[in-house]
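Progress report, Aim 2. The chain analyzed during this reporting quarter is listed below.
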Amino acid sequence: MDEAIGRDRTVAVVGTGTMGQGIAQVALVAGHPVRLYDSAPGRAAEAVAAIGARLDRLVEKGRLDAAAREAAAGRLHAAEDPSELADAALVVEAIVEDLAVKQRLFADLEKVVRDDALLATNTSSLSVTAIAGGLRLPGRFVGLHFFNPAPLLPLVEVVRGFATEETAVTRAYATVEAWGKTPVRCADTPGFIVNRIARPFYAEAFRVYEEGGADPATIDAALRECGGFRMGPFELTDLIGQDVNEAVTRSVWESFFQDPKFTPSLAQRRLVESGRLGRKSGHGWYPYAEGARRPEPHTAEPAPAPGRITVEGDLGPARELIALAREAGIAVDETEEDRGTRILLPGGGQLVLADGQTSVEFRDVVYFDLALDYRTATRAVLSASGTTSRETVREAIGLFQALGKKVSVIGDVPGMIVARTVAMLIDLAADAVAKGVASAEDIDTAMRLGVNYPVGPVEWSGRLGPAWAHELLDELHARVPTGRYAPSLALYRRTYAEMDGA
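Predicted structure tokens for the chain:
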């Protein structure tokens, strides 16, 4: 904590929108004098009043005592001119996402503040390096990407620009940590950690929808109730705003020179063009008008459970199904046949964990999706083709229903829903670690705290085994050879290194 900016030093925040006010409140509650500045006359004073009202609510809820509230209010001031920020030890910018505007602001600020002051941007989509490009002292410039709402969410991405000095990163990191936040370090890359690695969570769901595999409600339910995610991508983007989410996706895609791994969704583009932006417009993927009914996920009708199944191999990530079946009173025979891992059903069909292939390629196969935890999952997702017998589908449905799961049957989509999403997250995380974007630990921390993932992608990869994601993506790439699913070189190297060491 020695490098942290002292609490007696002033923190200035430029920009008084939601993020600016939130960052100011965080610094204020941490004990700093805070000055708010906005180029629009009167906005800073309005923001001071708004923050005061939020502090009052914290007192009412018992989260802040009255004395601390009065002390904080005495440290908070509106600045009418940038010259009033001269003694700030840290200036955080939270203005419009426009590169030229930000560059002009920091060029002006550099003429005002002292040379030892830290300058920081809260940008979520622009290059930290580019914003600092014209500065006299770019080494003291960092990104401090808070998540909204800043007073509540713990994560802050501390972004190192190309010219940023390590002392500036260390000081910014320590300061944010002293404020009670959880900082993670990352390089200046499009999307930083969270907005870079999270793209497949949205993109793969939209792709399954575009392929006719399932409707939004069923896809959301699969990722929530089977994958363990707090919200599904369709309901989450409705909450974020379709225009906002699509703009971030497009920005990352363009920043990576239109890499197919980040290709935006045409269906989401049409949604934005139609003005269906989500909750804020009253309609997105789902309707939000008063009295509107939320679509229900597809759930199969009850089917009889098979009395006996045969398991070949150990089922890998799905091995818990063996114990669950026995607990449900289903007889389980186990063999060690060296033909992969699968569940043989009484009628002659088979159940196989999603592996990037499709049911139509095989005789009488039903695929089942990956689950975060098969014991606690409340829904199972199955995939079958038109050539799969109805008996096999019913036996598969009945098996999972006997285990206490709701069952959704989707189209014959390679990699299904949860499996292909998790595999892509693992691939992007491995690529980011290999390219020095962030450490594996910081990536997992960022994804858990920034977007509430049940586990980080690196940890998930460890649970699934070294070859799982690589093999699934390799099969997907063979069926969709656009480059989108080609395993990264980093995943390829890590997979074979771990397999050699096993």
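The chain has 19 helices and 15 strands. Residues 43-60 form the longest helix (18 residues). These observations will guide the mutagenesis work planned for the next reporting period.
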